[in-house]
Write a structure and sequence with these properties.
The complex is a heterotrimer of chains A (377), B (310) and C (418). With 377 residues, chain A is mostly helical. Chain A has 15 helices and 2 strands. Chain B is an all-alpha fold. Chain B contains 11 helices and 2 strands, in the order H-H-H-H-E-H-H-H-H-E-H-H-H. The chains are: A mainly alpha (377), B mainly alpha (310), C alpha/beta (418).
C-alpha cells in the first residue's frame, strides 16, 4: 500500500488528475458490464456509498478534525433532506429549482449546526456527545409530528392544521434537477435530460458532490482553521491559553460539518424522490461514526476509501454475495452478526483505523506557532 | 373520586415503575462510565439478555401460572442464576472487546461496543425470534386497590418490581459507600493510575464493575419480563438509550444521580404520555436533557468539578 | 491487505455466480420486502408462500413452468442494519437491480407502502410490472381525500399503470371499521396508533369517518415505539370513559402489548373492548399476547378477506395444510396475498406466452388484463388503477381459540347494520 502511495506521489499532478477523471468516467460502463453478470444493482450501491462518504466527510470535520464527538449527526442529514423537501414538495407550492434549493439546504443545515453547537460550547468531551445524541433523537419525531401544526394566541389563529412535513407518510415527490435551459439551447425536447431515477445520471451528480466536499475538506485540513481544530482536539486548554478562540473554532466545525450533511441530505432526498422520518434514525448516526472511526478519524482520503468499503461490505458482500454463495441458509438473518464481528475485529487489530495514515502529511505534533496562527484569521 | 385525580395518581405509579427498571440499567451505565469513561452501547442488550435467558430458564421447568408454593421461593434462585449469567457475559465482553483497547483512543471502544450490540441483537433474533415475545404471566395482576378506585392500580407485580429494585438500589449504594471493594472502585474511578499505585488491582475492579453492572441489567430484564409480560430482541437499544439519558441527567458517574435521573424520566414519560400525547414524549425527554446539560452541565447530582465519581 | 483480500473474494464470488448461471430461457421474479429486522417473520412467511405457489404450480403442470419457462424467484431484502427496518435507499437499489437484469420480468413487492412509493417510479419508468401483496396506502393507485394531491401520478412517470396490488386499501378499511363499531353498539372510542405510515394512517381514516357518522372519539394518542409503555394511554381511556380502544398497529409495532396491557390492567374486565386492523391480525398474535383466553370475547379485527386457517376453498385448504406441514408454523395472513400474487404472475406468464414473446411489455399487459381469475382468495381481477376488483373487508371477533365469525363490513354499514 505504501509503495503504491509513494509511486502515486511521484506522478505529475496533471497525470494524477487525468487518471482520477478516467476512473470516475469509466466506472458506470464497467459497472454496467458487471451488472449484467451479477445483477447486484452495483451503481445504485455506489451512489449510496458515495452519499455516505459525503456525510462521513462532514462528520469527519467535527469528530476527526476538531475531536468533538457527535452522536446525532443524522439530525443534520434529516435537516438537509427535509429542508429540500419543504422547498420542493409540490403541495407546499414553493417548488424551488434543485440548483437553488440545495444551497439553501446547506445554509439551513449550517445554521442548525451553530444552533446546536452554541449552547454546548461550555460542555466538554462526552457531555457534548450526549447533547448531540439528544438532538439526533429529537429530530425524527419532530418532523413526524409537524404534519398538523396549529398555532393559536387566544382567538387569533395564526396557523391551523398546517402540514409542513406530511408526517409519517413522508414527503413525495421531491424536486429533481431540471436542465431546461441546456435543453432549449441544445434544441432537445423538454425533459430529455431529466435524471429521473437513472443511476448513471445520479452517479455523476453525486461525484460532483463528492468532489466539492472532498476539496473543501482538503482545504480545511491544511488551513488555519484546520490547524486550530487540531489544536483543540489535542488539548483544548492548551489551545485556549495559546490564543485559539475555541468558541469560534468549535462553532465553525459544527457549521461546516452540518453544511456537508445538509448538501448530502438534499441530494439524497432528490435522488430518492421521497423522504420519511425513519430514514434518519440513530442507527444512521452510528453507521456514519463507524465509517469515520473505522477508516481512521481525521484522514480525508481514509474516510473516502473507508466509506466506500464499509458501505459495500454491508450492501454487496453481506447482503448479496453471501446469500448467493450460501443459499437456503441462515446467512441472511445472521448478517448483523457478521457486521458486528467485523467492527470488533477491525477495531481490535487496528484501533487507529484502517486508513488513518493515508494522506496525512504531518506526523509531527503541532507546534505552538501553528496553533497560535491557526486562529489568526 | 374525581377521575382526573385518579388518572394523575395512576400515572405517578406508572412513572415510578418505569423509573425502577430504567434505574437498574442506568446504574450499570453510570458505574462503567465512572471507571473507564466508556459509553457502553451494548449495555442495554444485557438487559435484553436477562429477559431472554430467564425466559429460557423458566421454560426448562413445568411452572404453574401464577406462581405458587415452592415456586415463589424459586424466583430468587432463578434471579441469582440470571445475575451470574448476564454479569458473566458482561465480563467476557469487557475482556474481549474493551480491555485490549484500553490504551488507545476513546473512540475505538465506542465502536466495538456498537459492534457487540449489533452482534448480540442479531444473535437474540436468531435464537429467540424477531417477534415480540410473550413472557408467561407468573405474577397475577389482581388489583389491591379495586375497592378504592377503578383507575389506580397496585398489584402483586408492582409489589415485585418495587420489592426487587428498591432494595437493590439501596444495597448497591451501601456497597459502594461502605465496603472495601466499593472504596477501591471509587478510587479506581477517581484516578486509575493512582489507584493502581496504591496496590489496587484495577483490572479486577473493572471486571467486578462490569459484573455488577451486567447483573443489574440482567435482573432488570427478568423483572421487566415478569412485570410487563413481553419483550423484543431489540428493546435493549431503546431502554439503554433512556437509561443512559437518565444517568447523564442525574450526573454521570454518580450512583444516586442515576436513580434520580431514571425516576425523573419515568415520571416525565408518564405525564407527557397522558397530558400531551405519546408522540411528543421523546421530544420532551430529550429537550429536557439538552436544557439540563446547558444550564447544569454536570447533571443534577454531579459534582460541579469535572471529576467523576462512582 | 484487508482491501486486497476483499477484492479477491469479490472477484471469486463473481466467478462462482457467473459459472452457476444457467443458460436456457429463464424468467426471474424479484421479490422485495423485509427479510431481516422487525418484520422478518412476516417477510419470511410471504417468501415461503411465493415459493409454495411456484411449487404447487409446477406440481400441477408436471414440473413445467408456464409455457415451459424456467421461473426463478430472487428474494431481496429491503431492510438494512443501519435503520433496522425497511430502507428507502435499499428499496431503490432492489428495484434498480430488477430493472438492470434483462431476465427480471416481474418485481414483486413491497410490504411497506412507503417503500413502494420509492420503487414504483423506478419500475414504472422501465416498464416492469410490479405486483404488491401487501401495500394498503390508497394513494399508491388512486387519489383520495387524505392523499397528497399529485398521487398517484407521481408514481407513474411513464403515464402508464404498471403497479397492481392484491391487498385492499386503508381508506376503506378504517371507515369500515368505524361503521362496524357503531353496529356493534360502541359509543366512545379511544384511538391509539404507532406513529408509522400504516398505523397512524389507518387510525386517521378511522377517526375521520367516526366523526362523520357520529361515533364519539374520546381521545387519541400514539406509542412511539413497540417498547413504549401502553399503560398511560389506557389510563386516559379509562378516565375519558371509552368503551372501545381502536389500535392502528402492526404486529411488531406494539399492538400485542396494548392488548396484553388491556387484559392485565383490567380494562377487559370493565367491558372495554379492543379493535384492530389487518396489520395485527395474525396467528402469531395469539402467542404474543400469551394465549387465546386473553383475546377471547374481548377483541375485534378487520381483514381484507379470509384468513389462511379459515379458507374453505380447495386452493386455500391445500395452501394451509401444505404450508403448516412444510414450514411447521402458521402462515402469516399476508402470506395468502403473497401466494395469490404469485398465482397471478404465473398465470400472466402463461397468457403472455400465448401472445408470442414473453417480455416485460407482454407480461405487464397480461397482468393488467387479469380478470375473473380463480385464485386462492376467490375470483378477482384488477381495475384500471391496478386495485383488486374483489377487495372486500371482513370483521372478525375472537371466540374460544381462534378468529371467528367473519362478517362483511363496509363504510356505510352503520346506516342499516345488516
Amino acid at each position: 500500500m505504501s509503495t503504491l502511495l509513494s509511486r502515486w506521489r511521484s506522478i505529475p499532478r496533471w497525470a494524477q488528475l487525468a487518471i482520477l477523471v478516467a476512473i470516475v468516467v469509466f466506472v458506470p460502463p464497467v459497472i454496467n458490464i458487471l451488472e449484467r453478470q451479477t445483477g447486484f444493482g452495483l451503481l445504485t450501491q455506489i451512489n449510496r456509498a458515495l452519499i455516505y462518504v459525503c456525510l462521513a466527510l462532514g462528520l469527519n470535520i467535527v469528530v476527526g478534525f476538531a475531536g468533538l464527538l457527535d452522536l446525532g449527526y443524522a439530525a443534520f442529514f434529516a435537516i438537509g433532506a427535509y429542508t429540500f423537501g419543504i422547498l420542493t414538495w409540490p403541495s407546499l407550492r414553493l417548488e424551488y429549482s434543485f440548483f437553488i434549493a440545495i444551497w439553501i439546504c446547506v445554509l439551513v443545515a449550517a445554521l442548525f449546526g451553530m444552533f446546536i453547537g452554541a449552547p454546548t460550547l461550555r460542555l466538554r468531551g462526552d457531555y457534548l456527545a450526549i447533547v448531540t445524541l439528544a438532538f439526533g433523537e429529537i429530530i425524527p419525531p419532530l418532523v413526524r409530528n409537524l404534519d398538523h401544526i396549529t398555532i393559536r394566541f387566544g382567538d387569533w389563529v395564526l396557523v391551523e392544521s398546517f402540514n409542513l412535513t406530511n408526517g409519517p407518510l413522508g414527503m413525495k415527490p421531491l424536486g429533481r434537477p431540471n436542465f431546461g435551459l441546456i435543453e432549449s439551447v441544445a434544441g432537445l425536447p423538454p425533459g430529455q435530460l431529466d435524471p429521473g431515477v437513472n443511476p448513471t445520471f445520479w452517479y455523476f451528480i453525486i461525484v460532483i458532490l463528492v468532489l466539492i466536499v472532498l476539496s473543501a475538506s482538503r482545504r480545511f485540513e491544511d488551513s488555519r482553521i484546520g490547524r486550530a481544530w487540531r489544536a483543540i482536539r489535542e488539548d483544548e486548554t492548551a489551545a485556549r491559553f495559546m490564543g485559539v478562540n475555541t468558541v469560534r473554532v468549535k462553532l465553525l466545525a459544527f457549521a461546516f460539518g452540518a453544511s456537508f450533511s445538509g448538501l448530502a441530505g438534499a441530494v439524497f432526498a432528490s435522488m430518492l424522490g421521497a423522504i420519511f422520518p425513519e430514514l434518519f434514525r440513530f442507527q444512521v448516526s452510528i453507521f456514519l461514526l463507524i465509517i469515520v472511526i473505522l477508516s481512521g478519524a481525521g484522514s480525508v482520503w481514509g474516510v473516502l476509501i473507508g466509506g466506500l468499503l464499509i458501505s459495500t461490505f454491508d450492501g454487496v458482500l453481506l447482503a448479496q454475495i453471501m446469500p448467493s454463495i450460501f443459499p437456503n441458509s441462515d446467512v441472511q438473518s445472521l448478517r448483523w452478526v457478521f457486521f458486528g464481528v467485523g467492527l470488533i475485529a477491525v477495531m481490535l487489530f487496528r484501533p487507529q483505523g484502517l486508513f488513518g495514515h493515508l494522506g496525512r502529511r504531518r506526523h509531527t505534533p503541532l507546534t505552538i506557532e501553528e496553533a497560535i496562527h491557526g486562529d489568526a484569521a | 373520586m374525581d377521575p382526573q385525580l385518579e388518572a394523575f395518581l395512576r400515572q405517578v405509579l406508572v412513572g415510578l415503575s418505569i423509573g425502577c427498571y430504567l434505574a437498574l440499567i442506568a446504574l450499570g451505565y453510570t458505574m462503567v462510565y465512572g471507571i473507564i469513561e466508556l459509553i457502553n452501547f451494548a449495555h442495554g442488550d444485557l438487559f435484553t439478555f436477562g429477559f431472554f435467558i430467564s425466559l429460557t430458564i423458566w421454560g426448562l421447568f413445568d411452572v404453574p401460572m401464577p406462581l405458587q408454593g415452592a415456586w415463589i421461593l424459586a424466583l430468587p434462585l432463578i434471579a441469582v442464576v440470571v445475575v451470574v449469567l448476564t454479569g458473566g457475559l458482561n465480563v467476557v465482553i469487557e475482556r474481549v472487546a474493551y480491555r485490549p483497547l484500553r490504551g488507545s483512543s476513546k473512540l475505538a471502544p465506542l465502536i466495538t461496543a456498537v459492534g457487540v450490540s449489533f452482534m448480540l441483537e442479531a444473535i437474540y433474533a436468531y435464537i429467540w425470534g424477531a417477534n415480540q415475545i410473550n413472557y408467561p404471566r407468573f405474577i397475577p395482576t389482581t388489583n389491591f386497590l379495586s375497592d378504592f378506585s377503578r383507575i389506580i392500580r397496585f398489584t402483586p407485580r408492582d409489589l415485585l418490581l418495587f420489592g426487587v429494585t428498591i432494595p437493590l438500589m439501596i444495597g448497591l449504594t451501601l456497597f459502594i459507600d461502605r465496603t472495601r471493594l466499593g472504596k477501591a472502585m471509587r478510587a479506581a474511578a477517581q484516578d486509575r493510575e493512582a489507584a493502581a499505585m496504591m496496590g489496587i488491582n484495577v483490572n479486577r475492579i473493572i471486571a467486578i464493575t462490569f459484573f455488577i453492572g451486567g447483573g443489574l441489567a440482567g435482573i432488570a430484564g427478568m423483572v421487566y419480563g415478569l412485570y410487563t409480560g413481553s419483550g423484543r430482541f431489540i428493546m435493549g437499544f431503546e431502554f439503554g438509550l433512556f437509561a443512559f439519558t437518565a444517568a447523564v441527567l442525574g450526573g454521570i458517574g454518580n450512583i444516586r444521580g442515576a436513580v434520580l435521573g431514571a425516576f425523573i424520566i419515568g415520571m416525565v414519560q408518564a405525564m407527557s404520555d397522558l397530558y400531551i400525547g405519546g408522540e411528543w414524549s421523546r421530544v420532551i425527554i430529550f429537550s429536557l436533557l439538552i436544557l439540563m446539560l446547558v444550564f447544569r452541565p454536570s447533571g443534577i447530582l454531579g459534582s460541579t468539578q469535572s471529576v467523576e465519581k462512582v | 491487505m484487508l482491501a486486497k483480500r476483499v477484492v479477491v473474494f469479490v472477484l471469486l464470488a463473481l466467478l462462482v455466480l457467473g459459472v452457476s448461471a444457467q443458460d436456457g430461457q429463464t424468467v426471474k421474479i424479484y421479490t422485495s420486502w423485509p427479510l431481516t429486522g422487525g418484520t422478518q417473520a412476516i417477510g419470511q412467511s410471504m417468501l415461503n408462500a411465493v415459493n409454495l405457489a411456484l411449487e404447487h404450480y409446477l406440481a400441477d403442470n408436471e414440473g413445467m413452468g408456464p409455457a415451459g419457462l424456467t421461473v426463478q424467484v430472487v428474494p431481496l431484502d429491503d431492510a438494512s442494519p443501519t435503520s433496522g427496518a425497511w430502507d428507502g435507499q435499499i428499496e431503490a437499489e432492489n428495484a434498480q437491480r430488477c430493472v438492470n437484469d434483462p431476465e427480471c420480468l416481474v418485481y414483486m413487492g413491497t410490504y411497506n407502502s412507503g417503500a413502494a412509493a420509492v420503487s414504483m417510479p423506478i419500475t414504472n419508468a422501465a416498464g416492469v410490472v410490479q405486483v404488491s401483496p401487501a401495500n394498503s396506502y390508497a394513494g399508491l393507485t388512486r387519489s383520495c381525500p387524505t392523499c397528497a394531491e399529485d398521487e398517484p401520478g407521481i408514481y407513474r412517470p411513464s403515464g402508464e399503470v404498471n403497479y397492481f396490488r392484491v391487498a385492499a386499501t386503508d381508506d376503506v378499511q378504517g371507515p369500515a371499521a368505524a361503521s362496524w363499531a357503531v353496529c356493534l353498539g360502541f359509543e366512545n372510542v379511544y384511538v391509539l396508533d404507532d406513529t408509522q405510515a400504516y398505523g397512524a394512517g389507518i387510525a386517521n381514516e378511522f377517526v375521520n369517518h367516526a366523526e362523520e357518522i357520529g361515533l364519539n372519539v374520546v381521545g387519541r394518542s400514539s406509542l412511539e415505539t413497540a417498547d413504549s409503555d401502553p399503560r398511560s394511554a389506557l389510563t386516559a381511556a379509562l378516565r375519558d370513559g371509552a368503551d372501545l380502544i381502536y389500535g392502528g398497529f402492526v404486529l411488531d409495532s406494539g399492538g400485542p402489548r396494548v392488548v396484553q396491557a388491556m387484559y392485565d390492567e383490567g380494562l377487559f374486565d370493565e367491558g372495554i373492548k379492543f379493535m384492530g386492523p389487518d396489520g395485527i391480525l395474525s396467528a402469531a398474535l395469539i402467542e404474543q399476547v400469551g394465549g387465546a383466553e386473553i383475546l377471547a370475547n374481548n377483541t375485534y379485527f378487520t381483514f381484507p378477506g379470509l384468513l389462511p386457517s379459515l379458507l374453505s376453498n380447495e386452493q386455500g385448504v391445500r395452501f394451509y395444510t401444505d404450508y403448516v406441514e412444510q414450514f411447521g408454523e402458521e402462515p402469516d395472513p399476508y402470506s395468502v396475498y403473497a401466494y395469490a400474487s404469485m398465482q397471478v404472475v404465473l398465470n400472466a406468464l402463461g397468457s403472455a406466452s400465448e401472445t408470442g414473446t414473453v417480455d416485460r411489455a407482454s407480461v405487464l399487459e397480461a397482468v393488467r388484463s387479469t380478470a375473473d381469475f380463480e385464485g386462492i382468495i376467490g375470483t378477482f381481477g384488477f381495475d384500471e388503477n391496478g386495485d383488486n376488483t374483489a377487495a372486500a373487508f371482513y370483521g372478525y371477533d375472537f371466540e374460544s381459540d381462534n378468529f371467528s365469525n367473519p362478517t362483511a363490513i363496509t363504510p356505510t354499514m352503520h346506516e342499516t347494520c345488516e
